[in-house]
Design goal:
It holds the Pfam family Amino_oxidase. By secondary structure, the protein is of the alpha/beta class. Among the domains are: 154 residues, FAD/NAD(P)-binding domain (3-Layer(bba) Sandwich), CATH 3.50.50.60; 152 residues, Alpha-Beta Complex (Polyamine Oxidase, Chain A, domain 2). Helix content is 35%, strand content 23%. The strands form 6 sheets. Strands 9-8-19-20-21-18-22 form a 7-stranded mixed β-sheet. A hairpin with a 5-residue loop joins β8 and β9. α1 runs parallel beside α10, α1 packs parallel to α16 and α5 packs antiparallel against α6. The longest helix is centred in the last third of the chain and has 24 residues.
Length: 466
């Protein structure tokens, strides 16, 4: 039986992903002591770089875009280098009727009318994203209206061109929120666009999926954890968090985990909102929190990795970038590692399509997925040397991907309160970020912001009259 460790710190951080570790590092730099409790046997949260059958795979989050300045600064600080995603040659588009077309540029090769409708919808979403912004989209004059209609139905209110609506929906539903477009609001889609700078940025895969970290994104968390040393405790899920309660009776918190009990003045919940209920709060959280957390959930996606002896698609002048709004695998990209002679493809099966193939046997699912990729790139795609499916929905300490979003009406109703501290308890994860929402960049940003808020509150308390 493991020996329990008792620790006293200024701040206890629950979760050793990029957000929790960024917060802990900032607090440490500001002179506050920290302990980070992590349920898994590794750091990194939803970033995870692993070698599978001799191939290094990015099982979790991996891409870096030019606007992700917090992540870029962190990479430089930690001495990590990046390399550009391969994208030379033609992309492939599969129309709803199965027609395969090679093309270049950002816009899908569709008919003139559909293209015009796509451009009009993109411009409309760009305008809404600019007006709403990523910080408080619930303050937009149309927030309630946008939040009480699904993105699917909102698109069809704007356009009768079904192909245009499906293509635009692909970038948010399958590509980002990994939920059916009928299950989240138009306001949630506007937030997703605003968090990336514009909807146009989401459409431009060369922007949003610009670069990767040499050696893997998980190194961000690993190197931050190295700076924290023994203050990071793995295999230590927090079971109970005791705090003073709304009445203000008592001060500080006590976090009881499997391997350590930490007494601290503040706590940071640096895990996705769907995991808050895994912790028993004593006394219970306020009613508002209980209600809010029930309206946040993660989506579902299978991230498929297929490694081949060579990047065979390149000899045919293809970039490996493929889209098909009606296909099982709706997106495919060249994910070959820097300096690797082999070729790696990554593809994504989202929401209801993932539901369907999870009903199949492992062998049947693999065959169906590889057949879908071969529909873009040819029969050579059917026989990878390494095949692996990242299934974050079955991960005990994640239970979905990529990040939490609200159900219909939830964002404008609860968004203003999602970052409000509850006594000494603060909330920090990419799911709650503004810029960089659901990305590593957002996790780092909100981690630093949360740390700064605690530092400010602590300094204010120190000079307050007693």
């Amino acid at each position: 039986m493991e020996t329990m460790t008792n620790m006293e710190r200024d701040v206890v951080v629950i979760g050793a992903g990029p957000s929790g570790l960024s917060a802990a590092r900032r607090l440490q730099q500001e002179g506050l002591s920290v302990a980070v409790l992590e349920a898994r046997d590794r750091v990194g949260g939803r970033t995870w770089t692993e070698t599978i059958d001799g191939a290094m795979l990015e099982i979790g989050g991996q891409w870096v875009s030019p606007d992700q300045t917090a992540l870029l600064e962190t990479l430089e600080e930690l001495g990590l280098e990046t390399f550009q995603r391969y994208r030379e040659g033609d992309s492939v588009y599969l129309a709803e009727d199965g027609t395969r077309t090679r093309y270049t540029g950002e816009m899908f090769p569709v008919g003139a009318q559909t293209q015009a409708e796509m451009e009009r919808l993109i411009a409309l979403l760009d305008t809404l994203a600019a007006e709403a912004g990523p910080v408080a989209p619930w303050t937009h004059p149309l927030a309630r209206e946008l939040d009480t209609v699904s993105f699917h139905h909102w698109l069809r209110r704007q356009s009768s061109d079904e192909a245009a609506c499906n293509n635009i929906g692909l970038f948010i539903a399958g590509g980002m929120l990994t939920k059916p477009a009928h299950s989240f609001s138009a306001l949630q889609a506007v937030l997703m666009a605003a968090s990336a700078g514009s909807f146009s940025n989401l459409v431009d895969d060369n922007f949003i999926l610009d670069r990767r970290v040499a050696g893997g994104m998980q190194q961000v968390s690993e190197r931050l954890a190295e700076k924290l040393g023994n203050d990071v405790v793995l295999k230590s899920p927090v079971r109970t968090l005791r705090w003073g309660g709304e009445s203000g009776q008592g001060t500080g918190v006590t976090a009881v985990s499997d391997r350590a009990t930490v007494q601290a003045r503040y706590a940071i919940m640096a895990v996705p909102p769907n995991l808050y209920s895994r912790v028993s709060f004593e006394p219970p959280l306020p009613r508002r929190q209980h209600q809010m957390h029930q309206h946040q959930s993660l989506g579902l996606v299978i991230k498929v990795h297929a490694v081949y002896g060579t990047p065979f698609w390149r000899k045919d002048g293809l970039s490996g970038t493929c889209f098909g709004p009606g296909a099982l695998v709706q997106e495919v990209y060249d994910n070959t590692n820097d300096g690797d002679d082999r070729g790696t493809l990554v593809g994504f099966v989202s929401d209801e399509k993932a539901d369907a193939v999870f009903e199949l046997t492992v062998e049947e699912r693999r065959q169906r997925i590889l057949e879908s990729i071969a529909g873009y790139l040819g029969p050579e795609a059917l026989n990878p040397e390494v095949y692996y499916e990242s299934d974050w929905g079955s991960e005990e300490w994640t239970r979905g991907a990529y990040a939490a979003s609200y159900d219909l009406g939830g964002l404008h109703r609860y968004g203003p309160d999602q970052l409000k501290p509850v006594g000494p308890i603060y909330w920090s994860s990419s799911d709650l970020a503004a810029e960089g929402y659901q990305h590593v960049d957002g996790a780092i940003r909100i981690g630093r912001q949360t740390a700064d808020r605690i530092v400010a509150a602590d300094r204010a308390a120190a000079v307050a009259p007693r």
